[in-house]
Structure formats: structure tokens, C-alpha cells
Recover the amino acids of this structure.
């Protein structure tokens, strides 16, 4: 891509698309705060013994973070790939977007009250339909002239894995109707959703955005090899879950092969990109992109180790290891990347003299939570729930600070502009 095209792309020249992208991110950020507060409440359940249905609140937390923050946050950056849309396409995008936001609000109401029920499943289905309509229109109007082949390829794989993961919620309804809730096939469907959502949709959407941002030698065939190796590895590595649930050696074998392919892709990618984050002008963005890279590398290493059969059986059966792994990807990887991108685009703003301490506290919160969750599977840690509550609170406070500092800096900028005009 030429430097002129780069400037046009990253300066967000089209006012309407820029406004839509920023508005989309604002909605995602609100869901991040809401989901974070739910996370803190979940941690307090074990300390204060609230007489509330814990599992229902956990479902609410996961859906708000997955769909409200994760999906909507990624979509805010995908907006920037779009070309000019006609009137019908704009209306369809706007309607489907607000249908999704309304459905998320419905899930926030329904899950804590009823858990998986007719109401919550209805809202989930509405979001799924809105998501499908939105992405079909988006795919038709993305500006392919601004995208390198490898970026487009990563986006295609991301959408493929999103569709693949979306099969699971439909399957779960059927499984429940047939009275098989709690069976191996039920748990396998849950793991299918988590695997292809986290290791597929999230990773490849972020990979596309990462490649588009840092341009790691697109003429080099290693980049294309990386994408295919990671994609095939993602598909095969689900064999580990199948092997554990159905006790099949074939599943474990495919899982090990898949993780070898993912390690190969990871090594190629790191070799191409490990020096590129230094081109980021904003200091805090550079640190956050670094944390994203570190988290994703650790994710691949842990996933590979967990493909060994005895370790796989222990890891999959351990709730704390699973939750720690998911938080590593979601907070260290996805959230750090989205925040770094938002800061670069001017959607989040931080005072310069706060950047280092802000990052240090953010990294402390994430690393502390993940380490404690992993350690919980092996050790008896005194006051562990207080530690987890503390780290959760740190993360939510940092998010709140980012929102407050953005509002304050924007208000200060507008006041300065008003005084100059006067």
C-alpha cells in the first residue's frame, strides 16, 4: 500500500465513516465498563456470599464482554476498511448495528434474572441475525484497493471462524431440548464456541488489523505462510478438546499437529514483526501493542503445551486454568490491542505524564489476575478471592480512568477553542 493510501486510511478522511467508527467504539467501551463491573461483582460473590444465582451473572458477564466489548470493539476498527456505501447499505448497517446493541442490552437484563431461558436465547438469536446482516453488508463494501492480500485473507479467515463458532449456540439449544445438557457432547459444543471464537475469530480479526497497521513485508511469502499455518492449526487443534471429551487418540494426534502448525506460524509472524511496534508514535499505544504481542505469544505456548494428552485432560477439566487462559487472550491480547488502536485514532486520550504509570497498573492487574488463576489450579492460596477481587477492581478502575480522561481532555480542548474564537 502506498504512503498516500496509508495516510488516507489512518487519518480517517471520510467524516461519516470516522464518526460511525468512533460512535461504535464508544458503545463498545460502555459495554467494557458494564462487563468489568459484572466481573468485579462475580469476584465479590465468593467473599460476601450474595444470595444471587452466580451462574446467571457469569453468563451475563461473558456475553457482555464477548459481544458488547469484543465484537463491537473489533467492528469499530473494521468500519475503517469500508468504501463509500449507498443509502440502502448505510441504513442496513445502522439498523443492524443498533439491533445488536439493543439485543446486548436485553441480554444484560435477561441473563442475571433467568440465565439461559427463552428471553435470553431470543436476545442472543436477535444479535446473531443482526451480526450476520451487518457483516454481509460490510463484506460487500470494504475497499479492497486499500487492503493487501494478506490482510484480506486474514479477514476472510476471521469471518469463517466467526460463522463456525456461531454454530455452537444453535447446537446447544437442540442439545438441551433433547435432554442432553451436561453430556460430553454438550460440553464439546461449549468448547467449540470458545475455541473458534477466541482462537479463530478474535485472533484472525486482530491479525488482520495488526498486519494492516504494521505492514510486515507483504512481498514476503512468509506472511502468507503464517496465515495458512495459523488457520489450519486452529482447525486441527480443536482435536485436543475432542480427544479429551470423547477419549480418542486421533483427536489428541490432530490437536498436537494443529499446535505444531500454530507454533510454526507464530515463529514466522514474530520474526517478521517483533521490531515493528517501535514505529508507533504514541508511547502508551506502543506499550499496549507490546503487551498484546506478549500475551498472544504466551497464549500459543500454553495452548501447545496443553495439547499433550495428560496435560490436556487436566487443563480442560480445570476451571481456573480455563478462565485464566481466556482472560489472558481477552484482556492482555484483545483489550490491549483495541485500546492501543483507539488511542492512535484519538478515540481514547490520556495525559502524557500518566502514560507510564497507567500502563504499569494495567499490566499489573492483568498479569496478577492471570497468574493467580493459573496458580489456583496447583496451589492453595490464602485469601485468593480477595486477590482476584483486587486485581479485577484495578482493571475496571483503569478502564474508568481512560473514559474520564478522554471526556476531560476533549472538554478542555473545546473550551480552549471557544476561548480562542471569543
Amino acid at each position: 500500500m502506498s504512503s498516500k493510501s496509508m495516510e488516507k486510511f489512518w487519518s480517517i478522511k471520510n467524516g461519516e465513516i470516522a464518526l460511525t467508527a468512533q460512535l461504535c467504539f464508544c458503545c463498545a467501551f460502555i459495554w467494557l465498563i458494564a462487563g468489568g463491573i459484572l466481573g468485579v461483582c462475580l469476584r465479590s460473590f465468593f467473599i460476601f456470599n450474595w444470595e444471587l444465582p452466580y451462574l446467571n451473572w457469569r453468563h451475563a458477564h461473558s456475553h457482555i464482554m464477548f459481544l458488547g466489548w469484543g465484537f463491537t470493539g473489533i467492528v469499530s476498527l473494521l468500519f475503517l476498511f469500508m468504501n463509500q456505501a449507498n443509502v440502502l447499505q448505510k441504513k442496513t448497517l445502522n439498523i443492524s448495528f443498533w439491533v445488536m446493541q439493543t439485543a446486548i442490552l436485553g441480554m444484560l437484563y435477561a441473563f442475571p434474572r433467568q440465565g439461559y431461558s427463552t428471553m435470553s436465547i431470543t436476545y442472543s438469536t436477535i444479535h446473531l441475525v443482526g451480526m450476520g446482516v451487518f457483516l454481509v453488508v460490510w463484506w460487500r463494501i470494504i475497499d479492497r484497493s486499500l487492503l493487501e492480500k494478506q490482510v484480506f485473507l486474514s479477514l476472510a479467515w476471521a469471518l469463517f471462524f466467526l460463522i463456525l463458532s456461531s454454530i455452537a449456540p444453535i447446537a446447544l439449544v437442540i442439545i438441551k431440548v433433547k435432554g442432553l445438557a451436561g453430556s460430553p457432547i454438550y460440553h464439546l459444543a461449549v468448547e467449540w464456541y470458545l475455541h473458534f471464537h477466541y482462537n479463530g475469530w478474535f485472533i484472525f480479526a486482530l491479525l488482520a488489523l495488526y498486519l494492516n497497521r504494521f505492514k510486515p513485508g507483504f512481498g514476503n511469502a512468509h506472511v502468507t505462510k503464517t496465515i495458512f499455518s495459523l488457520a489450519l492449526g486452529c482447525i486441527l487443534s480443536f482435536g485436543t478438546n475432542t480427544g479429551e471429551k470423547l477419549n480418542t487418540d486421533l483427536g489428541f494426534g490432530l490437536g498436537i499437529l494443529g499446535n505444531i502448525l500454530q507454533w510454526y506460524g507464530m515463529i514466522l509472524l514474530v520474526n517478521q514483526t517483533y521490531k515493528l511496534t517501535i514505529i508507533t508514535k504514541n508511547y502508551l499505544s506502543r506499550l499496549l501493542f507490546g503487551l498484546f504481542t506478549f500475551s498472544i505469544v504466551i497464549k500459543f505456548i500454553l495452548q501447545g503445551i496443553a495439547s499433550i494428552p495428560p496435560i490436556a485432560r487436566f487443563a480442560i477439566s480445570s476451571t481456573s486454568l480455563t478462565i485464566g487462559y481466556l482472560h489472558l487472550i481477552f484482556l492482555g491480547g484483545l483489550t490491549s490491542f483495541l485500546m492501543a488502536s483507539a488511542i492512535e485514532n484519538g478515540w481514547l486520550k490520556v495525559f502524557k505524564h500518566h502514560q507510564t504509570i497507567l500502563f504499569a497498573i494495567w499490566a499489573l492487574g492483568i498479569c496478577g489476575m492471570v497468574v493467580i488463576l493459573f496458580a489456583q489450579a496447583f496451589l492453595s492460596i490464602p485469601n485468593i478471592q480477595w486477590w482476584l477481587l483486587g486485581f479485577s477492581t484495578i482493571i475496571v478502575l483503569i478502564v474508568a480512568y481512560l473514559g474520564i480522561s478522554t471526556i476531560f481532555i476533549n472538554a478542555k480542548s473545546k473550551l480552549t477553542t471557544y476561548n480562542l474564537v471569543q
In short: The chain has 15 helices and no strands. Confidence is low (pLDDT under 50) at residues 1-18, 416-422.
